[in-house]
Each structure stands twice: as structure tokens, then as C-alpha cells.
Amino acid sequence: MVTTSKRSALLSYLVVLAFVLWVVMPILVILQNSLKPTLLIFTIPPTWAFWPTFDHYAHILSEVHFQQFLLNSTIVSTTTCLLSLAIGSPAAYALARLRVRGRAPLAFLILLARMVPAFVLVVPLYTAFVFLHGINTYWAIVAAHVSFTLPVVIWMMRSFFEDVPIELEEAARVDGATQLGAFIRVALPLVAPGLAASGILCLLFSWNEFLFALILSGRDTQTMPIGVSNFIGTVSIDWGGSSAAAILAMIPVFILGLSVQKFLVRGLTMGAVKG
Amino acid sequence: MNELTQKLSDQGPRLMRASFRWRDLGDSRWLGYWMVTPAVLALAGLILAPLLYSTVLSTYSWTLLEIRLPKPFVGLMQYSTVAHDPLFGEALKTTGLFVVGTVSVELVLGFLIALALLNIHRGRRLANGIILLPMIVTPVIVALIWRYLLDPQFGLVNYAIHLLGYQQDIPWLGSNSLALPSLIVIDIWEWTPFAILVLHAGMLAIPDDLYEAARVDGAGAWQIARHVILPYLSPLILVVLLLRTMDTYRVFDTIFVLTRGGPGTSTQTVGIYAYENGFVYLNMGYTMALSVVILIAIVVISLFYLRLLQRRPQW
Questions:
Q1: Are residues A101 and A198 in the same domain?
Q2: Of B166, B206, B223, B272, which alpha carbon lies 20 to 30 A from A131's?
Q3: Cβ–Cβ gap B143/A179 under 8 Å
Q4: CB contact at 8 A, B195 and A267
């Protein structure tokens, strides 16, 4: 570790503190809006001291639409997460451990898949789902979401499987386990934290996704981000209500995100940076 | 039934343990292929097939309203239109400005703050935890937050500027010259944390003896950063550059929600332009041609970066 002079340590603290403030201020402002009585939101100068009210939260939570958005987002993101893990982890194991001809180019192609912009993919997917009568079903959105969570799961899980000492699997093979058995009974339990981390990242990515959900959803399947964007679109914005909705939508994201803090960098870099 | 019990008692435990074909499958030379097949099929169906479908349909002239009708074949005409489309040229330029503006600032700022984080000991974990928040917030909510902060009348940004003595309401997102810079600042808020966390992780992995050696040679803090940390981090800097370039090139959510490419076309990136052509003007054939061109461009850029990265084993 760098041993530093007192002055540069102080400077470092100031820099970090300034950046932390820059990061949290906007979030705190939204939190404040969500607790402010409507009349006090639009005062100049801004009102800093007020009795917090939970009216905006009560109002938003009682909205049928909002409940529907929450439910839809939960259904879509959990299905996306489970599907991606179920399809992605065997593939990741095979790419990490098994003899697959052309596995390097295959892994590379999967990496390239992450680079396809959503707005490029959404046009043909929309056209296809119109023909398949898939618009306004959860499956359409889940399928679209799997297209970008699956490459992440494969690359991330591959890096976790590579971290497992190969001797453990070899010992299981000596004891008579098949290769598949070694995967299911030895490797998979050992990467359980990685599995949880990848799953949570899938939940996050799917929960936050906007464009696919916007185009492929119908009245019954709109997710949270679509609901929030409706607030911004309207002429007179309900600042208190939309702030409360934003805070409510952020809570699960923050809990999930902080629970995988250790693996976040690894996930966002497709396993390249172990963090 | 009788036959089965007969068989079981004949072959006994061997058959039971063998659990039929599972054992064959579990040790097959083809196991690896079986295990990648579902993923390959899923990605082929969800990414490759739609892209091919787009490429084919881009040679027809059709709008969304004619989706079920026979479409006139026009060959590569749409592509020649793309090549001569001044609005697309402008969208490329806007996208380029956005990419360069965001990525350069995020990288430099990220490096400096990662360095500062390395220097502090107490509260580093806490700082890390707070810093990562913007990049996990739903992008649409990021847009909502900044919509309020930048509000000309009631936004805190203009209030702060009033306090500094400038008395006009600045229409940040509603002005031709300020909208793009505002969106760049929002992206910097959202994604500098990514650069910080990646580069900080890299700095922590630098072996202590490197610092020691540098210090023995009489290097100061600045020289250590310049000659020890920077070269060691160069692969990670490339990773940040690659991922941020890709992601800002295809930025959509925040711009769509905040300005829809406006005012005028001042914030119209290629993503917004493609979307508008497809889902507002319903020119599907043309949108698909645009998408193909946009995709080829991003693949070429990515391959260029990946070339540079090839010395790293994981990539």
C-alpha cells in the first residue's frame, strides 16, 4: 500500500468526500421531494425545514397502476434471472472446463452479443413478436431481456468456474462421479456465491431495462421504468408522487446492488476484472 | 410390470446405479456440446436470427402499417439513402460528441478518484458503497432525478446559480447549445463510478514491491502514479474505454426520456434517430438498414479495442 504524507492523505479525503456528496445529493433531493408537502415543493428559495409527510407514498401505493408495474417488473425480472442462470451456467461450465471444439471463438461471439444495441434488436424482435402474437405477453419481454443477461451470466460464471480448483473435480471423478456429476455435485455448490451474484445482476439489469419493455409490452405488461417514464411525459409533473415512486422503485435496486457490491465490477466487466 | 421386476432383480444394483442413459450422457465426449447447446440456441434465436431478419427486411421498402402485406423489394436502395442522409450524418456527429465527452471525463475523473480512494484508509468501504449507487439506479429514474434538478424554474441547479449572482432561469434541457452538455454531465454522474471501481480494483492488485522499488529510486507520488500505476493499469483502462464507448454509443433511455433528441435535433443520437424512424415515422425498412449500419460501426470499433486488449488472457 502507498504510504503517504499527511497532506496528500487529507487531500484524498477531501476529493473522495466531494465526490461522494456529488453522488448522493441528487438522490437525497428526490428523497426530500417525496417527503415534502406538495405546497412546499415549489417555493423559491427552496424550503429546507418541513414536517415530512407520507402522503405521496400512500397515494402512489394505492394506485392500481403502480401495483401493476411492480408486479410486472417482479415477474419479468425473476423469470429472466432464473432462465439465464439455468441456460447460462451449464454453458459457462462447458466453456471453462470441457472439451468443446472452437470454444474460444464461441466465447468471443457471446462477448460480441453484449455489444448489440437494444435499439438495433428491438425492431426485428417487435416485428417477429407481432407475427407470433407475443406483444403484451411477459414472454416477449423476458426473451428480449435474456438476450442481454445470458452473455453476462455465461462470462461471469465462466470466471467463477475457472476459480474452482480443478483437483476437487478430479477427486470426484476418481471416486466414480461422471463429468456431469462433478459439475452438479462439486463445481456448482462451490460457485454458489457466484451464482447468487450473477442472478442478482440479472435481476438488476432486467428490472432497470427500458426500451424492450417499452416496445414489447402492452397495457397489461408494462414494467416499472415505463411507469416512471409516464410521469416525465405528462405536462404537469406530479413531483411529490413521482419522487415517491422513484424512491420505492430504487429501494429493491439498492438492496440488491449493495448485496453484490463485491461482485458488481466483475459482473459489469463480464468477468474480466475480479474486483 | 413383471418383466421389469424380473429385469431389476437380474441386473440388480448395477442398473439402478447406472440410472440409464444419464450415466452415458454424463461421461459422453459430447457433454460439453450438450451443455452449451441451450445457450447457443437461445442466443442464435434472440440475437443472430433477428439481426439476419433485419438485414433481409432492410432490402424491402415497407412501413409498420404494411407489416402483413407483400413488400416491394428495393435491394440496397435503403443503404444508399442512409449514406446520403444528412440527418443520419448529424446523428453520428452528435453521438461522437456524446461518446468522446462522456468517456474522456469519466476516465480521467475515475482515475483521479480511484487514486484518492487508494490513499484513504478509514471509510473506504463506505465510500465505495455510496459511489456505486448511481450506476445501479434505473436509468429512467436517473432521468427523472435530473429533470427536477435541471428544471428552469424550480430546479436546485438554477437556484444555486442564482445564489452565485446570475439571475436568469437557464433552460438546461430546452436549449440547443446546453442540452447535449447537460446530458453528458448526467452520464458522467451515472457512470464515473464504474471507472472508479474498476480502476480502484486494479490499483489494489498492484504488488507492494513495485511501490517500494519506485520509492527506493526516489520517485514522488506523482511519478509513482505516472510510471508505476498507469502502465500497470493500462489493460483495465482499455476495458473501461471499450465498455463505456460501447454503452455510450448505444445510449438511449435517459436521452429518450429527457429530450427525445430535441430541442430540434441537438441531442439526436443514432439510437434516438433509429427509434424515431421506426416507431414514430414507421419506416421499418429504412430503420432496419440504419440498424445494420449502426451495428457494423460498433462491431468495428469494438474489434479495434479488443485487438488492443488481446494481450490479456481473459479477453
A1: yes
A2: B272
A3: no
A4: no
User: Model-level pTM greater than 0.95?
Assistant: no
Candidates A147, A114, A258; CA nearest to A197 is A258
Mean pLDDT, all residues of chain B: 86
Count Cβ atoms below 10 Å from residue A101 Cβ, excluding itself: 8
Decide if A242 and B138 are in contact by the 8 Å CB cutoff: no
User: B130-178, pLDDT tens digit by residue?
Assistant: 999 999 999 999 999 999 999 988 889 999 998 998 888 889 999 999 9
Last residue of a domain, one of A29, A53, A77: A53
Taking contacts as CB-CB distances below 8 angstroms, the residues of chain A near B17 are: none
**Could you tell me the mean pLDDT of each successive run of 10 residues in chain A, 275 residues long?**
68 93 94 89 82 90 88 96 96 91 87 88 91 91 96 93 90 86 91 94 95 92 90 72 91 92 86 74
Q: How many CB pairs under 8 A join A and B?
A: 289
In a domain, residue A275? The reply is: no
Model pLDDT, residue B23: 64
Q: What is the mean pLDDT of residues B15-36?
A: 70
Residue B175 phi, psi (nearest 5): -120, 140
| φ, ψ (nearest 5 deg) of residue A176 | 100, 5
Looking at the fold, whether A172 and A191 belong to one and the same domain comes out as yes
In the stretch 145-184 of chain A, residues with CB closer than 8 A to chain B read 146-147, 150-151, 154, 159, 178-181, 183
3-state secondary structure chain A: CCCCCHHHHHHHHHHHHHHHHHHHHHHHHHHHHHHCCHHHHCCCCCCCCCCCCCHHHHHHHHCHHHHHHHHHHHHHHHHHHHHHHHHHHHHHHHHHHCCCCCHHHHHHHHHHHCCCCHHHHHHHHHHHHHHCCCCCCHHHHHHHHHHHHHHHHHHHHHHHHHHCCHHHHHHHHHCCCCHHHHHHHHHHHHCHHHHHHHHHHHHHHHHHCCHHHHHHCCCCCCCHHHHHHHHHHCCCCCHHHHHHHHHHHHHHHHHHHHHCHHHHHHHHCCCCCCC
Is the per-residue pLDDT at B315 higher than 60?
A: no
CATH of the domain at A128: 1.10.3720.10
Ramachandran region of residue A94, left (φ > 0), alpha (ψ -120 to 50) or beta? Answer: alpha
Average pLDDT over residues B275-288: 91
ipTM of the complex: 0.91
User: Which of A112, A128, A151 minimises the CB distance to B53?
Assistant: A128
Q: Which residues of A touch B208 (CB under 8 A)?
A: 1
- Cβ–Cβ contact A271 with B under 8 A: yes
- Domain, as residue range, for B174: 80-309
Do residues A122 and A30 share a domain? Answer: no
Beta bridge partners of B60: B73
Q: What residue of B is the nearest CA neighbor of A9?
A: B119
Q: Which three cell numbers stand for residue B157?
A: 441547479
Give yes or no for residue B1 having a pLDDT over 50. Answer: no
Q: Which of B119, B250, B257 sits opposite A117 (nearest CB)?
A: B250
Nearest residue of A to residue B246, measured between CA atoms: A115
